[in-house]
Specification:
Strand content: 15-25%
Oligomer: single chain
CATH class of the largest domain: Alpha Beta
Helix content: 40-55%
Strand order of the largest sheet: 2-1-3-4-5
Shape: globular
Number of strands: 10
CATH topology of the largest domain: inorganic pyrophosphatase (n-terminal core)
Radius of gyration: 20 Å
Structural class: alpha/beta
Order of helices and strands: HEHEHEHEEHHHHHHHHEHEEHEEH
Largest sheet: 5 strands, parallel
Number of domains: 2
Number of helices: 15
Length: 340
């Protein structure tokens, strides 16, 4: 395995030499921020948001190769199929912080390769590699439940996070910056054509105040888009109630918007002593997100899914997956027992 410093050097050289890059990034604030930081450095390229794992798909790989990139950056994707990497005609640089993947034929950097306890988010590493606007980095860092560069950010942007606030959960719900991070997350939801437009606009935004204070037409557009999504989020949020159960659980019907991760994050702040399990049902399938604060959720989920028609995984305290709808109650019961 190459040394950390050598890999960082390779990534920096790839960024410095890139002329026609493609960026494939995850569909959350961490992934978007990572893309924006690299894009701001190179000032060229094509961004492609991917909400699912990067799997081999002939039309998708043909689309990428037809752009004739000189380098491909994969950002914040927990799983990338080896077959996909093999099919890329340009060098692949894969930057991530999820459980380490065994991939070859690419330059792969993950802090957990060197210290399994270090899951510093991809936006943090993108900022280390490319520099760039700190507010973009902090959108991904706070959005991924971390607090790197917090003191520096408070000094550079006074007022958006009060000096006394240091915990991520307090930032997320009770500060101007927490509201901003949620807004950016909401502009990544909705019809694909709308999300693509929002991402393109984000590459033109120079300061967060353009959106927060609606000081430009582009900022106003994104603000109003996020407001519309917020209305739909709040409608579902009001339906969820905590009981005496060790789980806070709710399933809502799919209407083209995924709020499972957003709801799980907010509910975990409000009920830190409980495990949160939120599902989104589409047909006979339920996609779910789960969160807790103290117990090994990833291990419990692995056990709970044994023998069921479902899959899932993730971090120690934040997981996701999918299961057939009729087996969701059993999954819920097993998790309740394992985590009580």
């Amino acid at each position: 395995m190459e040394k950390k410093e050598a890999l960082i050097k390779k990534f920096k050289e790839a960024l410095q030499n890139a002329q026609r890059p493609v960026y494939i990034f995850d569909g959350d604030t961490d992934g978007l921020s990572s893309f924006l930081l690299l894009y701001h450095f190179v000032k060229e390229g094509k961004g492609i948001m991917q909400k699912l794992h990067v799997t081999y798909n002939e039309p998708f790989i043909d689309k990428i190769n037809s752009y004739h990139p000189d380098v491909i950056f994969i950002l914040d994707k927990p799983v990338v199929e080896q077959e996909f990497i093999d099919a890329c005609k340009a060098p692949v640089f894969y930057l991530d912080h999820h459980p380490v993947q065994q991939v070859t034929g690419c330059t792969y950097f993950n802090p957990r390769m060197f210290n399994d306890e270090d899951n510093s988010c991809t936006a943090y590493w993108a900022y280390e590699l490319a520099g760039g606007p700190l507010w973009i980095a902090m959108t991904g860092i706070i959005g991924d439940w971390q607090t790197h560069h917090l003191a520096e950010f408070k000094k550079a942007y006074p007022g958006v996070i009060p000096p006394s606030v240091t915990k991520q959960e307090d930032i997320y719900l009770d500060t101007i910056w927490g509201s901003f991070v949620r807004m950016i997350n909401f502009i990544l939801k909705g019809p694909t054509k709308d999300v693509k437009k929002n991402i393109k606009i984000m590459t033109r935004i120079k300061e967060a105040s353009e959106i927060l204070e609606q000081t430009t037409s582009q900022g106003k557009f994104l603000y109003r888009y996020a407001e519309k999504i917020q209305v739909q989020y709040d409608k579902i949020r009001r339906q969820i109630k905590a009981t005496r159960s060790p789980l806070v659980s709710h399933v809502y019907q799919d209407e083209g918007l995924s709020f499972t991760g957003d709801l799980s994050n907010e509910l975990l702040i409000r009920y830190p002593e409980k495990t949160v399990l939120i599902g989104r049902q589409k047909g006979d399938q339920i996609a779910f997100s789960a969160r807790n604060t103290t117990k090994d959720l990833a291990s419990a989920l692995k056990i709970a899914l044994e023998g069921l028609q479902g899959s899932g995984g993730g971090h120690t305290h934040a997981c996701g997956g999918s299961i057939i709808a009729e087996e969701f109650p059993l999954l819920k019961k097993r998790l309740s027992t394992l985590l009580s």
